[in-house]
Amino acid sequence: MSKIRVHVLAKEVGITSKELINKLNEMDIAVKNHMSTVDENTVGKIKKLYLPSNDSKKTSSNKKEIDNKNLADKKKSKESKKEKTTNNQKTKKDIDNKVRKDSQHDKKSGEQLKKSSSEDKKKPKNSDKSDVKKDIKKERTSTKKDFDEKKLPRRDLSKKKPKKKSKSQKRLEKKEVVTGDDTIVNLSMPITVKEFANELNVPLAQVITKLIGLGVMASQNEIIDEDTCILIADEFGKEVNIVQPEEEKSIEEEFGLDFEDKEFQLKPRPPVVTVMGHVDHGKTSLLDEIKKSHVRTSEAGGITQHIGAYTVNIDDKKVTFLDTPGHEAFTSMRLRGAQITDIAILVVAADDGVMPQTLEAISHAKSANVPIIVAINKIDKPSANIDRVKQELLENGLLAEDWGGDTIMVPVSAKTSEGIDELLEMILLEAEMLELKANPNRRAIGTIIEAKLDKGKGPMATVLVQKGTLRFGDNVVSGFSSGRIRAMTDDKNRTIKKAGPSMPAVILGLSDVPNAGDLIYAVEDEKVARTIADKNKESNRENRISLNNRVSLENLFDRIKEGEMKELNLVVKGDVKGSVEALIQSLLKLDNEEVKISVIHSGVGGINESDITLASASNAIVIGFNVRPNINALDLAREEDVDVRTYRVIYDIINDVEAAVKGMLAPTIVEEIMGRCEVRQTFKLPGNTIVAGVYVLSGKILRKSMVKVLRDDVVIHEGEIGSLKRFKDDVRELATGYEGGITIDNFNDIREGDLLESYVLKEIQRD
Ligand SMILES: Nc1nc2c(ncn2[C@@H]2O[C@H](COP(=O)(O)OP(=O)(O)OP(=O)(O)O)[C@@H](O)[C@H]2O)c(=O)[nH]1
């Protein structure tokens, strides 16, 4: 038998919790209040004291029977209740299932995929949880006697942070429950003492007195847990019914914006391809070459406009290329939840081989689950070495098909056109394997690829249609923006009347400039479009707040415990290859049963925006060893709430991650960055001290702060500021935009172009 709570034991032996607490204290057994636990030994002693031994056995066996019966009855009534609810919720479930299936079927439905997959993750868990909770609650509330059932799982809700609920949610909960029985009080948690007294309809003072009687010292605005409520209500002859919050419907669900298509309605659609790779490896040249050779002469009349996407014809089959430099769009779109790419083309220059951005691209595509086709470019160059590229790719997890692997690698030259046809063929082949399909005969859903405000025409948006057909005159909504399509052009700047799945189109008529990466829906009329846009505006704040669901070392353990996290994703950056590898090896050793550690990307160099985007899209933590995030990365991390940890000692990293996984992260000292300045000049003082002439780029530099010296985002020194001057005067701080002079204690190797980061140490208390 495990430990048992005081109030449960009190019930069992038929005395009040207060009496039991007094008794235990008399026996020198320290218990604070009714929620304290006592061990088996103590339980035995108390039972001996209060229950005659024979009777006790009888009572408990009788009680077991009663409980079993109660349980069976409850099960029955629960089942019949469940049946009712199931019927009521059938329609909703159907839609949910449809959405889910749909997203499984059609991987490419961008945000839809993310939403439904996160629903998949959330829903069963929530419902399980709420079932368990309901069971517990029923056990507790059904009869007073049931209370002594110590085998029931118990949760100490007082330890759980109360989740904030919106007013509408609360209203909804209240409306839901109509019992008609005034001995039953419906409560939605969390609840304060005052709210509880109101619900019970008894004076606050009486509730507080009863609480004191139970050893709980709580003021009117303090939150009390479920167990306490049940006990107090009981004292007033009332039963508590904890009302579970209804899952709020998303706007998409509420308006039925997406639904599953029937298999027979699905038609093959062109693949959507993104070209990625290291700078100067030939992405643009390759796309230009493809465009040049595969845009039909009949289409050539139109002037190709840059709209972020275009289609080419290969053997009468279409391929849509996302025409974005680098892989930024690919990742920032994913960041917003849209996954529109079906296939990633990884361009690697045959004379240069695998470079840092090649690796980034591989990590991005892999974490997004997008198949990669490698284009080994510049094979016309004498220095080209195809096998070397293949070897390097192999070292990074991509094994060429002709070497026995499953990654298609095509040698090409954007200059001579060699291999381009084969590359396109491979794209079509891959697309065929992926069996990409969509229903063209329904209202359109697409993703905004690019959007801008045109002075003459108003908001202009490039849409990539994913399902259905977008038509001239359609009423559409995307985020806050809604409107009626009053002009539509294709990638060749020709007016079109409609665009089907995988086709890009530029539309005019939206009220505001929408966000790239957001979904756009065609809806039945203008009013619906406007209503949805308004609702989106309203819910935007809440959505931003939901970013707080991001994983961090602080909340990791809770997330693991709650079953939300099975895998901890890490992006690892360091100053040298050797230490990054050593660090990864050590981190991977921290894998345990509860959580799998996976390094989704690693590299040498400072933490950049791409690392943050990847971390954000994959809910990862960024670990930097001897490197720092650059300013843009820092801003993005703040915006996206990505946890970025930087360290100087590998041991500290391992310790922290290990402690976080085990939920034992100690109160810690963190560095709070105050500001950054750039060294524009250096001067030598008599005595050889170097003064750095600096310009403050962001925040402020404090005289009494520590400073990190960064060279190419790598920390080369850390120490205290020796002096801080503005002109000839000593100053306490230098603000953004100001110039001044800095010396650093015990460090003289300051160079022009170095960045100095001023920071203070701050203690963070964990709860
Ligand atoms: N010899 C040769 N040169 C090429 C080939 N492809 C591209 N180049 C050259 O390589 C340079 C970089 O090509 P880009 O197409 O601009 O490369 P990119 O990857 O788009 O570069 P960023 O957009 O800056 O990332 C240019 O000078 C091209 O002319 C090729 O197949 N052979």
UniProtKB/TrEMBL annotation:
<dbReference type="InterPro" id="IPR009000">
    <property type="entry name" value="Transl_B-barrel_sf"/>
</dbReference>
<dbReference type="InterPro" id="IPR036925">
    <property type="entry name" value="TIF_IF2_dom3_sf"/>
</dbReference>
<dbReference type="InterPro" id="IPR005225">
    <property type="entry name" value="Small_GTP-bd"/>
</dbReference>
<dbReference type="GO" id="GO:0005525">
    <property type="term" value="F:GTP binding"/>
</dbReference>
<protein>
    <recommendedName>
        <fullName>Translation initiation factor IF-2</fullName>
    </recommendedName>
</protein>
<comment type="function">
    <text>One of the essential components for the initiation of protein synthesis. Protects formylmethionyl-tRNA from spontaneous hydrolysis and promotes its binding to the 30S ribosomal subunits. Also involved in the hydrolysis of GTP during the formation of the 70S ribosomal complex.</text>
</comment>
<feature type="binding site">
    <location>
        <begin position="377"/>
        <end position="380"/>
    </location>
    <ligand>
        <name>GTP</name>
    </ligand>
</feature>
<comment type="similarity">
    <text>Belongs to the TRAFAC class translation factor GTPase superfamily. Classic translation factor GTPase family. IF-2 subfamily.</text>
</comment>
<feature type="domain" description="Tr-type G">
    <location>
        <begin position="268"/>
        <end position="437"/>
    </location>
</feature>
<dbReference type="GO" id="GO:0003743">
    <property type="term" value="F:translation initiation factor activity"/>
</dbReference>
<feature type="region of interest" description="Disordered">
    <location>
        <begin position="48"/>
        <end position="175"/>
    </location>
</feature>
<dbReference type="InterPro" id="IPR027417">
    <property type="entry name" value="P-loop_NTPase"/>
</dbReference>
<dbReference type="GO" id="GO:0005829">
    <property type="term" value="C:cytosol"/>
</dbReference>
<dbReference type="InterPro" id="IPR000795">
    <property type="entry name" value="T_Tr_GTP-bd_dom"/>
</dbReference>
<dbReference type="Pfam" id="PF22042">
    <property type="entry name" value="EF-G_D2"/>
</dbReference>
<dbReference type="InterPro" id="IPR053905">
    <property type="entry name" value="EF-G-like_DII"/>
</dbReference>
<dbReference type="GO" id="GO:0003924">
    <property type="term" value="F:GTPase activity"/>
</dbReference>
<feature type="region of interest" description="G-domain">
    <location>
        <begin position="271"/>
        <end position="419"/>
    </location>
</feature>
<dbReference type="Pfam" id="PF00009">
    <property type="entry name" value="GTP_EFTU"/>
</dbReference>
<keyword id="KW-0342">GTP-binding</keyword>
<feature type="binding site">
    <location>
        <begin position="277"/>
        <end position="284"/>
    </location>
    <ligand>
        <name>GTP</name>
    </ligand>
</feature>
<feature type="compositionally biased region" description="Basic and acidic residues">
    <location>
        <begin position="55"/>
        <end position="156"/>
    </location>
</feature>
<feature type="compositionally biased region" description="Basic residues">
    <location>
        <begin position="157"/>
        <end position="169"/>
    </location>
</feature>
<dbReference type="InterPro" id="IPR023115">
    <property type="entry name" value="TIF_IF2_dom3"/>
</dbReference>
<feature type="binding site">
    <location>
        <begin position="323"/>
        <end position="327"/>
    </location>
    <ligand>
        <name>GTP</name>
    </ligand>
</feature>
<dbReference type="InterPro" id="IPR000178">
    <property type="entry name" value="TF_IF2_bacterial-like"/>
</dbReference>
<keyword id="KW-0396">Initiation factor</keyword>
<dbReference type="InterPro" id="IPR015760">
    <property type="entry name" value="TIF_IF2"/>
</dbReference>
<dbReference type="InterPro" id="IPR044145">
    <property type="entry name" value="IF2_II"/>
</dbReference>
<dbReference type="Pfam" id="PF04760">
    <property type="entry name" value="IF2_N"/>
</dbReference>
<keyword id="KW-0963">Cytoplasm</keyword>
<dbReference type="InterPro" id="IPR006847">
    <property type="entry name" value="IF2_N"/>
</dbReference>
<keyword id="KW-0648">Protein biosynthesis</keyword>
<dbReference type="Pfam" id="PF11987">
    <property type="entry name" value="IF-2"/>
</dbReference>
<keyword id="KW-0547">Nucleotide-binding</keyword>
